[in-house]
From TrEMBL, chains A, B:
Range of residues in the leader sequence: none
UniProt name for this protein: Polyprenyl synthetase family protein
Keyword Magnesium: yes
Superkingdom of the source species: Bacteria
Keywords: Isoprene biosynthesis, Magnesium, Metal-binding, Transferase
Amino acid sequence: MTATITNAKESLSQESELRALRDALHQRLDQLLPAGGERDRVGAAMREGALAPGKRIRPLLLLLAAYDLGCDKNHPGLLDLACAVEMVHAASLMLDDIPCMDNAALRRGRPTIHRQFGQDVAILAAVALLSNAFGVVAGAEGLSDACRAQAVAELSAAVGLQGLVQGQFRDLNEGATARSEEAIADTNDLKTSMLFSATLQIAALAADATPAVRQKLGCFARDLGQAFQLLDDLADGCSGTGKDINKDAGKSTLVALLGAEAVRSRLHEHLHSADQHLSVCQHGLATRRFMHSWFSQQLATFS
Amino acid sequence: MTATITNAKESLSQESELRALRDALHQRLDQLLPAGGERDRVGAAMREGALAPGKRIRPLLLLLAAYDLGCDKNHPGLLDLACAVEMVHAASLMLDDIPCMDNAALRRGRPTIHRQFGQDVAILAAVALLSNAFGVVAGAEGLSDACRAQAVAELSAAVGLQGLVQGQFRDLNEGATARSEEAIADTNDLKTSMLFSATLQIAALAADATPAVRQKLGCFARDLGQAFQLLDDLADGCSGTGKDINKDAGKSTLVALLGAEAVRSRLHEHLHSADQHLSVCQHGLATRRFMHSWFSQQLATFS
């Protein structure tokens, strides 16, 4: 009984901490992407892409991991680094959604950016968000120049031909044909784990973590990315996610290959493994709590 | 007579120096963007976009300006910085050409990237080139970490909402309506001068130039960008440029507003002013020679 009350209290305090962090992220994104005049449609599209209510998984992960690694809660550049990662993520969603890619109509419960602003503006806004993100990282306060340069390199690697771009290309071009489990996992790595990894490496740079910790964070990111992508595949058949449903129909996903139950069990394996990577490095309480509660909530919505 | 022979000799030696630099740039771009397997269509599109024979104005400008400012010709990172600027330029051309933007069929004498590889691949390749460029700058050798971070910030500013992205948006959305001379010049600044400016600022960072020199380089970049854009407008009606002709028909350009002769004279005013900015800072011989001979050659082809 006491344990249950303690858990409930912890969960409440975690929820309110996450709410406060989400508010801070929103406020800082709002400052970094100031509203322009009425004719500034690219600026408006950038704001809509980055500020529309989202889960903010990546920037929250960056903040929580940095705190877990001992980074000062008042670090002057940490929020900016988190916002930069969210800008990259928002840019990638805007591009994934355009007609010649996934041709999606709905994202975060709203019409997609190209549906609101036109395809030309959506593409330009994505490029500007991406480019802005690198500028924000390069100018983040409270970080040594060496860490800034390394953080730019991490982000660049996560976006480029060995990251998001390759993941999206494979998904577009190989998703419709039969793929092995390994091929699907590789694509999921590129689509999701690479940006998680950059996110955590940037947190580690801000917290001045050791190479050993950084290596463990890399393993954690890979498991987390896999779990995340499996959750996304499981969610595809469900309404209420704020995205188009059944986009994966006919697509070679692990759900199609192994069935939903096997995928759920594999998801839990990845979470368990992710957990272990963090526990070995003696850090990661807030990060782990966040990860577990988030996955529990999401899995509960479509069980 | 002697002066003419000296000029001819200088011109020959300049031509062979430029050829050697262009070869070095091509070779380094080839290394930075290695050919992938047969299925790596994004990688192939990146290579085609960056390696197709181009004028290499921006990277040459970066190298020559850095040499003029006293940078060692064996600086280990200078070529990489120049390649990064060319990657950004190539990415911007690939995006400008796609159907929802300028819908161009021909570029550098070849079918545009989306015509060769499809629109999805063209967009992904542009994003990867752009992201790669930031990574190359962040890792450039022989530069202090502070200079790397500043160079990333310069490049980010040149691409984003106050640079190429805004220039392309205005050109797309306001080009068809009547514009004032000032509005056209502003758009040309965004489309062209901003990346020239970043190019020269990065050269200045590599050469450890003073703030006063950097300020003059900024003024030089603005004039050069304006001259460049006027040349581009003058060239639009001509064949043999390797691009679609008459793309500006019905567009509000300075050629349409003032006529070709007035634009030629304005172009020369900008070149003169550019010259003066460089002469004041007691540097810039190779840069100025390059600029003058390039404009003379180009103007001669369609006079």
